[in-house]
Design a protein that fits this description.
single chain; alpha/beta; Isopropylmalate Dehydrogenase; 13 helices; binds 1,4-dihydronicotinamide adenine dinucleotide; binds the ligand NCC(=O)COP(=O)(O)O
Length: about 375
Amino acid sequence: MLSDTKTYTPQLAVTLGDPAGIGTEVILKALAAPLAGCVVTLVGSRSHLVVTYQQLRSRHPTLPLANPDNLQILDSTLAPDLEQQIAIGQESAASGAASFQYLETAIAHALSGAFHGIVTGPISKAAWSAAGHPYPGQTELLAERAGVDRFGMLFVARSPHTGWTLRTLLATTHIPLRDVADALTPALLTRKLDLLLDCLRQDFGLETPRIAIAGLNPHSGEQGKLGHEEQDWLIPWLEDTRLRLPHLRLDGPTPPDTLWVKPGQAWFGSTQTAAAFNPADAYLALYHDQGLIPVKLMAFDQAVNTSIGLPFVRTSPDHGTAFDIAGLGIAEATSMRAALELAVALCHERYKTGNTETSDQLSSGSANVAVTGI
Ligand SMILES: NC(=O)C1=CN([C@@H]2O[C@H](COP(=O)(O)OP(=O)(O)OC[C@H]3O[C@@H](n4cnc5c(N)ncnc54)[C@H](O)[C@@H]3O)[C@@H](O)[C@H]2O)C=CC1
Ligand SMILES: NCC(=O)COP(=O)(O)O
């Protein structure tokens, strides 16, 4: 039985991501200011953390940075011959092996009940593949290890201009564009919509959300003249779903270009409040770039990739490894900071409502992880 939320302190694992990318840098920057209401354990190579810190410090003496000496670290280092192959800015089998090992370690500890949430640094899918781990992304590894087949990729971003929150779930994720139309089915959309509704209720307290669902084709097919999926099954599926869920407002299929006008207005604001633009509580995009181009245009520095359907919290910044600027000290850490803050908030929300398997297994605020540091 879960009790006093005041005694609950979430345990967060933060994986460094690909050590050749900007993951470690944005983590050290994001943790420069205290992160209240949780205990953070970094999962990755301690020596890589220390070297990254020293290099950033010598190049930018006044940069706000967390000092690894003051951080709790679950050291996860490769064999020395592999570790030596890692070169900043260059993805490789070795850097892929490292980031894979960090995430595997964090997942194993989360499943054993030691962590309530995992915040992941960005990895390179190509480096994972080179290391012999051909997963489409971290989400799929997390879901596989957690033993769930009902999961989703939700991007959450709070506007610094208006305070409005954009939530975008991707119905399909890392598949070729050529395969998207075949992958989309009524059954898939029902699964994703129901998952989204569970998440909005449990994690965001939205009991009767309004959801906007994108069309697939230009102008949502223009009555079958520009593509037939809307007429063939998407409109019938929405009509059936409205009958199944009569208490909800389900808009769509909205032409995919105009779908983003209201959220754009609510995000950037004007003399009117965000609510005046009447944005939806969440958006269901049918494929990766349909959802992520608008999310990144609006909120590249704010958006958080959130895996829903897992038995523990998982968040990540929306950006990738940025090998082109790795080691320069110029990476922005705002999305990583938002990922850390959202993970803490989601852990508390799940603990409060009892919607977590992991927090049931943990005694309040005490992780059983062998760590170095404080
Ligand atoms: N969560 C994750 O693990 C993600 C991983 N990726 C992976 O990252 C790799 C590189 O992907 P790209 O498409 O190049 O995207 P990217 O996000 O790494 O870089 C795109 C552009 O944005 C810049 N950028 C990215 N993050 C930044 C930051 N924090 N501050 C300042 N500038 C930043 C980069 O310098 C680059 O010009 C790929 O292997 C991809 O799979 C991509 C997105 C998310
Ligand atoms: N485009 C989002 C992305 O690449 C994140 O993938 P994942 O590694 O979090 O599954």
